[in-house]
Write a structure and sequence with these properties.
CATH architecture: Up-down Bundle
Distance between the termini: 34 Å
Order of helices and strands: HHHHHHH
Radius of gyration: 20 Å
Strand content: under 5%
Largest sheet: none
Number of helices: 7
Helix content: over 70%
Shape: globular
CATH class: Mainly Alpha
Number of strands: 0
CATH topology: Four Helix Bundle (Hemerythrin (Met), subunit A)
């Protein structure tokens, strides 16, 4: 327990330091940002956290998908642990995307949200699925039937990930695509790509740290519930 707690805190601290450095570099450095594009460089500086939030949320939904499959097919407890952590992390990092995106949109588009944009709305639905799973998991009785039902919803939620990821390729409107591979016509400049990669790696550290802590909390809650159940049965007997 001590090692797990120490490792999770170390991951989070490293991630927070790296994320702080990335956002500082985004505001104070990145010489290739052109003030004549996207209504000045200010609206583009949020990209380093916004995109990292989004990529880590996809990792969370991959974890959710894996857990849903394992639980639904094998009824293995490790699958439910993956499901629980994945839904919590999907909500956390999804909210990071939903919060940071309108900051960008308000400056670049003149409005925080475009209801006609496929990527924006599909990601909002994806985050809503995560919110539903977190609330339903806590509100419903922890039975195999409940877990089966929520696992199916989790599989549906993951089906939105490729739609969200490919939205700007299929239907380009407001949201710009993020192309990390440089070519003559596309791709981020090397300085922007460096800061974006630094930010994403830092967010991955935060993701791992929070995942470890979240799983530990879930296990302690389950242990407390079992102990309470045993005490109640002891009083009845």
């Amino acid at each position: 327990m001590v090692v797990t707690k120490g490792a999770s805190l170390l991951f989070i601290i490293i991630g927070l330091v790296g994320a702080s450095i990335s956002i500082l570099l985004g505001f104070l450095w990145v010489p290739s940002l052109d003030p004549s594009t996207v209504n000045g460089p200010e609206s583009f500086r949020i990209i380093y956290w916004h995109v990292s939030f989004a990529w880590c949320s996809f990792l969370a939904f991959l974890l959710l998908f894996t857990g849903s499959i394992i639980w639904y097919l094998k009824k293995d407890e490790i699958g439910w642990r993956f499901f629980s952590v994945g839904s919590d992390m999907g909500l956390l990092f999804g909210m990071g995307v939903i919060t940071s995106g309108p900051i960008w949109g308000s400056v670049a588009w003149g409005k925080p949200w475009d209801w006609g944009d496929l990527r924006l709305n599909s990601f909002a639905l994806l985050t809503s699925v995560a919110l539903f799973l977190v609330l339903a998991r806590r509100a419903q009785q922890d039975t195999n039937q409940t877990r089966d039902t929520l696992s199916i919803v989790g599989l549906f939620g993951f089906s939105l990930v490729p739609i969200t990821a490919m939205a700007t390729t299929w239907y380009q409107k407001q949201h710009p695509p993020i192309i990390v591979v440089s070519s003559e016509e596309t791709g981020l400049p090397s300085d922007m790509l460096f800061v974006l990669i630094l930010s994403f790696i830092s967010f991955c550290f935060i993701f791992v740290g929070f995942s470890i802590i979240t799983d530990r909390i879930h296990q302690l809650e389950l242990k407390m519930e079992n102990n309470q159940k045993n005490l109640d049965e002891g009083w009845l007997n």
